[in-house]
Design a protein that fits this description.
Largest sheet: 7 strands, mixed
CATH architecture: 2-Layer Sandwich
Number of strands: 9
Strand order of the largest sheet: 3-2-1-4-5-7-8
Oligomer: single chain
Shape: globular
Strand content: 15-25%
Number of helices: 8
Distance between the termini: 25 Å
Structural class: alpha+beta
């Protein structure tokens, strides 16, 4: 569950059209990631994945967060802080379309952590798979990650960052297939959805027009 797996070289995932990410945090502050899962997507399949444990600045873990994801301080005490991992991940992220389930959370973790370390924001667009699921399967009881994963038949290990990232990727792939969307990036055009954006000039959210979020 907490094993590190390497971030692949760019050439190994050169066909990727989107990247799904998921963060787990050490405490209630957004700038305290202790784990990141990543999945590279070629529209209809997952090309590769990676998981990295992260030593949060200050090593301040809340019992509540530990109870959710199970990551203990001793698991990350010898791991790199975020900037070292970010140097590996940035070439994959920059200019890409990023996916996250409840992206408002994961993108806020990314922004807060970059700000904490004085790193510039990359230029990227992003989509929230909660919004994608709401547009694709509006009659589900809710659009939480376990609910939608169960609906599409994905065996989720919730709050494992790697499993959550793969679940997010699988939701986007299945939704695109279900809706007949040729590329995951094309969801905004078919579902009256606003593409989220992040860059040095600022941040704008991904939103689904005329619907109240429910997750």
């Amino acid at each position: 569950m907490f094993e590190n797996t390497a971030i692949p070289s760019l050439d190994l995932v050169s066909g990727a059209t989107c990247i799904a990410i998921d963060f787990e945090t050490a405490n209630s502050r957004r700038g305290s990631p202790c784990s990141i899962g990543i999945a590279w997507i070629d529209n209809d399949r997952i090309l590769g994945s990676a998981h990295r444990l992260i030593r949060p600045q200050g090593m301040d873990f809340d019992d509540f967060n530990i109870s959710i994801h199970g990551i203990q301080p001793e698991y990350v005490e010898d791991e790199p802080e975020f900037p070292q991992i970010w140097r590996e991940l940035l070439p994959h992220i920059s200019g890409s379309t990023v996916l996250a389930h409840n992206a408002a959370f994961d993108m806020s973790v990314l922004r807060a952590t970059l700000d904490l370390y004085g790193e510039p924001w990359p230029e990227l667009s992003y989509l929230c798979t909660v919004k994608i699921a709401q547009a694709t399967w509006p009659d589900l009881l809710n659009h939480k990650l376990p609910t939608v994963s169960n609906h599409i038949g994905f065996a989720l290990e919730h709050h494992s960052a790697l499993s959550d990232a793969k679940g997010c990727a699988s939701i986007a792939i299945e939704a695109a297939r279900h809706m007949g969307v040729p590329r995951i990036q094309d969801f905004p055009g078919c579902c009256d959805m606003t593409l989220g954006r992040m860059g040095p000039e600022g941040y704008s959210p991904c939103s689904l027009r005329n619907r109240q979020p429910r997750f």
